[in-house]
Amino acid sequence: MLTFQVDDMTCGHCVRAIKDAVRALDADAVVDVDLPRHLVRVHASRLDAPRVHQALEQAGYSPVHVAASETVPAAVGGCCACASVRCACAD
Ligand SMILES: [Cu+2]
Questions:
Q1: pLDDT of residue 67
Q2: Which CATH class is domain 2-90?
Q3: From residue 16, how far is each of 38, 40, 51, 85, 88 by CA, in Å?
């Protein structure tokens, strides 16, 4: 499993764009997104971290690869910056 912290993933639109970017590399990839914590987990045996990182960058995001053993801090600060789509972390 590859885990990325993507702090500029802020809403459902971003989630879809990120999933699409990963699945463009590997149609069988499973992408779990934890939007409140800005985490993207990719389950794909055919992909490695640099390829996923590059795809997310090309989709317009700033991913940081997180080693599996690292604990990820809880999301800091406010909520979604996208006004057009309802943010999943608003509840
Ligand atoms: Cu967004």
A1: 79
A2: alpha beta
A3: 13, 12, 18, 12, 13
